[in-house]
Design brief:
Elements: E1 5-14, E2 19-27, E3 30-36, H1 40-43, E4 49-52, E5 57-60, E6 62-67, E7 72-73, E8 76-77, H2 82-91, E9 94-102, H3 109-120, E10 127-133, H4 139-150, E11 155-159, H5 170-183, E12 186-190, H6 194-206, H7 213-218, H8 221-238, E13 242-244, H9 250-261, E14 266-270, H10 272-276, H11 279-282, H12 304-313, E15 318-319, H13 352-361, H14 367-381, E16 399-409, E17 428-438, E18 441-444
Parallel strand pairs: 1-4, 1-5, 6-9, 9-10, 10-11, 11-12, 12-13, 13-14, 14-15
Antiparallel strand pairs: 1-2, 2-3, 5-16, 7-8, 16-17, 17-18
Helix pairs in contact: 4-5, 5-8, 8-9
């Protein structure tokens, strides 16, 4: 393939570390140099293609470290395929996803992983990697963990929720944590007390409380906090690091903050739905609340301040989407008359970068912190940095030209996710993705999709870089 050079001129380059008015030179899919705009060095550069970024931000492509494309769940499948989901991600300025391969009980990890390789191969518009969901912790799967780490699958998700589906008891969790302490892997935890929640679900349904809002009421914040605390203590016993996914409750943030104050290698992720939505959405009439059923559930609005504060103080390090879309018609409707049968999950892979930029506009985050929690920290956490998550010589040319002034309204009519509603319908935002490059190739060119299925490459990962 002949060498191609792309030059991005005149933009404000924002990384987690700094902001500079610089031109960016890209060659053969990598960033090769940055130079201050207008200097002799920058002025002397020539390229096959020049992109004018005057008045715009030049930011690293987003890294969404928590997506579920084509996930089988609750008798149906997530409605985005790897093709539609990665295309939508690109529209939203995300250039790398880390999805979850699933081990089924009784299966080897390898069988689950191979199934996910096959689903994604040749279909992704952007680069992708995998975590491994462990549904069956036993001698054989513990040994397999070592092999997967060597293969670049360096994180393993366990569930304290969903008895009978993904649930692991404390003994199994401890064994997996001990193994990860040994092989360098990172345990990701869905921290909710699923055993207790099942009792509350049964009691609610028996009392005729069947509407979507009861999904939020039975999955109590205290049971998220209890499980978070227990996961931290088990990790401490195993001398292992811990990453808690989709933290939604103030009490759970407090558990993470206390552990980090003790110097423990404990990390937390939250998601846009917990920052921008609440139990008010779950309570929407005529079963509309089903659109907002996810686990951990949406919380009352007063939890949001604690999540924003956690992001500012670094008690929470990452914002991912937990993108797991189910159509309202025909999928969410499976739970009419029984909230426990509503497939759990929300669409969001396309909205994350824009929603977080809105937080910058509103003064909740700095611009550099926006890039840190959406690009650099997830890349570091999951062994992709500095190839991903920054703009620096040697990094992949995953670059977004972002217009901070354009106004947009989020709507299912204009989004690109394969789902029939938007969780943020009608929300007005300032800021929009204009152009997206993935490894130097234009995927979105001035709001036109120019990418293709199969451009995205599988990306093996190193171990968590926060532990070095």
């Amino acid at each position: 393939m002949s060498s191609t050079r792309t030059l991005i001129r005149g933009g404000l380059v924002i990384t987690a570390a700094d902001e500079t008015h610089a031109d960016v030179l890209i060659e053969d899919g990598r960033i090769v140099a940055l130079a201050a705009h207008g200097t002799d060095v920058a002025t002397g550069w020539t390229a096959d293609r020049t992109i004018d970024a005057t008045g715009k931000y030049v930011i690293p492509g987003g890294v969404d470290a928590h997506t579920h494309m084509e996930l089988p769940f609750g008798g149906t499948f997530a409605s985005d395929t790897f093709e539609t989901g990665t295309r939508a991600a690109a529209w939203g300025g995300t250039t790398t996803i880390v999805d979850f391969a699933v081990q089924s009980p009784g299966q080897a990890l390898r069988e689950g992983l191979d199934a996910w390789y096959a689903k994604a191969d040749g279909r992704c518009a952007i680069d992708y990697a995998f975590h491994m969901i462990m549904a069956d912790v036993n001698e054989s799967s513990l040994k397999e963990m070592d092999l997967l780490v060597q293969e670049g699958i360096t994180s393993f998700k366990l569930f304290m929720a969903y008895p009978g589906v993904f649930y692991s008891d404390d003994g199994r969790i401890l064994r997996a944590m001990q193994r990860s302490a040994h092989n360098g892997g990172l345990i990701m935890m869905h921290a909710e007390n699923g055993i207790a929640i099942d009792v509350l679900v049964e009691q609610a349904l028996a009392a005729g409380r069947t509407d979507p809002r009861y999904h939020g009421e039975v999955r109590k914040a205290l049971l998220e906090a209890e499980a978070t605390h227990r996961a931290i203590k088990l990790a401490q016993v195993a001398d292992a690091p811990l990453y808690v996914v989709h933290v939604s409750a103030e009490e759970a943030v407090a558990e993470l903050a206390a552990a980090r104050d003790q110097g423990l290698p404990v990390f937390g992720e939250t998601c846009p739905q917990y920052l921008f939505l609440s139990t008010d959405n779950l309570a929407e009439p005529d079963f509309e609340g089903a659109k907002y059923v996810c686990s951990t559930p949406l919380r009352p609005k007063e939890h949001q301040d604690a999540l924003w504060r956690g992001l500012r103080t670094n008690d929470l390090q990452v914002v991912s989407t937990d993108h797991c879309p189910f159509c309202f018609t025909g999928q969410k409707e499976l739970g009419r008359g029984d909230f426990s049968k509503i497939p759990n999950g929300l669409p969001g892979v396309e909205n994350r970068m824009d929603l977080l930029h809105q937080a910058v506009v509103e003064g909740k985050l700095s611009r550099r912190r926006w890039i840190e929690i959406a690009c650099a920290s997830p890349a570091r956490m999951f062994g992709l940095y500095p190839r991903k998550g920054t703009i620096a010589p040697g990094a992949d040319a995953d670059v977004v030209i972002y217009d901070p002034h354009t106004e947009q309204t989020i709507s299912a009519e204009t989004h690109h996710m394969n789902v029939d509603y938007s969780a943020y319908e009608g929300k007005r935002l300032t800021g929009q993705v204009e152009t997206v490059l993935s490894r130097g190739e234009l995927v979105i060119d001035r709001r036109e999709f120019t990418g293709r299925a199969g451009h995205g490459q599988y990306t093996p990962r190193a171990t968590c870089q926060y532990l070095l």
